[in-house]
Amino acid sequence: MAAKMAALVMLILTLLVVRLDAENTNSVYHPCADSKIQRSDGFTFGIAFSSKDSFFYNQSHQLSPCDTRLGLASSSKNSQLALFRPKVDEISLLSINTSNFFPDSYGGYMVAFAGRKYAARSLPAFVANSSYIVTSFTLVLEFKKGRLQNLYWKRDGCASCKGKSSFACLNKQDCAIRTTSCKNRGGSVDCSLGIQLAFSGTDKHLRVFNSWYEVENLRQYSLYGLYSNLKDSLTSQYNKFF
Ligand SMILES: *[C@@H]1O[C@H](CO)[C@@H](O)[C@H](O)[C@H]1NC(C)=O
Ligand SMILES: *[C@@H]1O[C@H](CO)[C@@H](O)[C@H](O)[C@H]1NC(C)=O
Ligand SMILES: *[C@@H]1O[C@H](CO)[C@@H](O)[C@H](O)[C@H]1NC(C)=O
Fold first, then answer.
1. What pTM, to 2 d.p., does this model score?
2. Scanning 63, 176, 195, 215, which has its CA 20 to 30 A from the CA of 109?
3. 135 CA from centroid of ligand 2 (Å)
4. Residue 32 clears pLDDT 50, i.e. is over it
């Protein structure tokens, strides 16, 4: 009887811990503010679209898009901002619908960023020019004790589009579609951007994030099948290609 009670108490405690664990404890919603996260928190970051040069100060130092010296927010700079708040350590596929947004008309490059004092930003990634658009990306968010340290684009050296004639391999790293194949550009492909996220490193309780290992083991594009809202557009058309 006592053992049963103890087991029951343990079960209730476990449920409580799991419940608490599943709650968001991060109250920082601004991409240009610092936060320290734990597993299951939401984490806000931004992706800025602009020309490659506009992410550099004095043509030499790459700064965070949050840095006012870049002046990305000013209307004279041709840029666009997308904000996301994924759940930490959950594999997520972000999508940016390009039916009304042509990345090439905003400079064609993107930088992922978050934080102020502990500002982190990715290198600029080529998205599109008038000839080509890259639609599939993997972004790794690397944390140390819950603080974002680094953001980087993980590339597969065009492994996912090798031998597929609908794609071109740009600079030996990006699978690109000809813009003339895109909807609203004379073609039939939905050229929306898909950004697969992976979390690596540790949270503020030093717990190790696992989603990175999972993504490493997944073939690129395999996640698209899990997202029913993208199924009809992305998956079916990619199935035709792959
Ligand atoms: C900008 O670059 C020029 C030439 O590279 C250099 O002389 C100048 O000191 C730099 N200005 C700042 C504010 O870093
Ligand atoms: C993008 O938006 C268009 C128009 O609203 C829609 O038809 C299309 O399915 C969307 N694509 C994705 C990938 O959500
Ligand atoms: C678009 O980018 C590709 C890859 O960098 C390049 O080969 C091509 O010349 C560019 N096209 C235009 C019109 O800038």
1. 0.82
2. 215
3. 14
4. yes
